[in-house]
Amino acid sequence: MEKEKTVCNIDHSKEDVIKKLEGNQILSSETKRELIQLVETHPLSQEQLNEAFHMAKKMNKYVELFKELFA
What we know:
- By secondary structure, the protein is mostly helical.
- The protein has one domain.
- Helices cover about 65% and strands about 0% of the residues.
- It contains 3 helices and no strands.
- It has helices spanning about 15-20, 30-40, 45-70.
- Helix 1 packs antiparallel against helix 2 and helix 1 packs parallel to helix 3 (about 45-70).
């Protein structure tokens, strides 16, 4: 599956990515811990950090949109 690239003018930090993952509503606690550990322990380029941040952000947005369908 090919990734959709996100264009962003903001450089996100590891802390930004971790906060976004911690606030994720759909991931299990175990999966969150696993993803956060990957972010904390791997050297990531700025492009990778930005992509990770926006992937986590999109996951949260899709959950909100799904819930709105049933509101």
